[in-house]
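Lecture 7 notes: from sequence to structure.
We start with the chain below.
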Amino acid sequence: MIISASRRTDIPAFYADWLLTRIREGYVFVRNPMQPRKISRVSLSPDVVDGLVLWTKNPLPMLGRLRELQDYMYYFQFTLNPYGPEVEPRVPSKQHTLIPAFQRLAEMLGPDRVIWRYDPIFLSETYSEAYHLHYFEVLARRLAPYTRRCTISFIDYYRGTEKAMRGVAAKPLTPPALLRLARGLADIARAYGLSLDTCAEEADLSAFGIGHARCVDGALLSRLLGTELRVSKDKNQRPACGCAESIDIGAYHSCPHGCLYCYAGGHGPAAKKNHARHNLASPLLIGEVGPEDQVTERAMESFKVTQLSLS
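Predicted structure tokens for the same chain:
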């Protein structure tokens, strides 16, 4: 299987010690977000885990401990946006902290294993089309020597994010504005030798050379491993999502970054409350196993193709 750590929260930034503890212990508990009393026991044995996808805005807590992941193939989805603290309240300085962290991480792992995410894109008086094109070019110039791919997306307004974003007076992203931005971003990416893809976007932007991303990418892991992975598309994601099947070991409403656009509930008071409930010794990311919880073993197997085909 492929482990996603995590779409739901920033494990490398805030829960790195817990993740590496779970790696040593060889398993993790994951609470079902739709049926909270049901918990899966997920093996983290290298025999069944084909790869780890680590999603983060700040990998610094893990940089000195990557050797503890030496038994796994892994890569990072690294989000680096142009927004200020009124949008990303507890994200460190891009200029002084995160751009150097991105560069250092890529020097350690190589450019194929650090993917730049510029998402989600929204518009306001401050964050205009011109602003995005300017700062995307600024970031591309600094990051292009250290990565090969950039993934973009345009903001989706869920109930929680719509309310949170009112404070920054976000404007509707009209189809003409989306196309103008897509064309401009594609031109910049091409100038710096970056492949540009969209994350879970239905719009066809192939005319600009923009493809559809697979953020949990079985083909990339196959190439990095030097072994074919027979992995299906993840049926639990949105139809426009191209990700391969994976198990996410994170928890919603638990990321202290506080980004207003967060679809995983990171901008509300529950995130701070849950973060405070984190126990390093617990196999669950947040909280403890209670007497009413039901723990079952998650069936897992490697996607690696181990036999030669005669066809």
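Points to note: The chain has one domain: 2-297. The first helix runs from residue 11 to 14.
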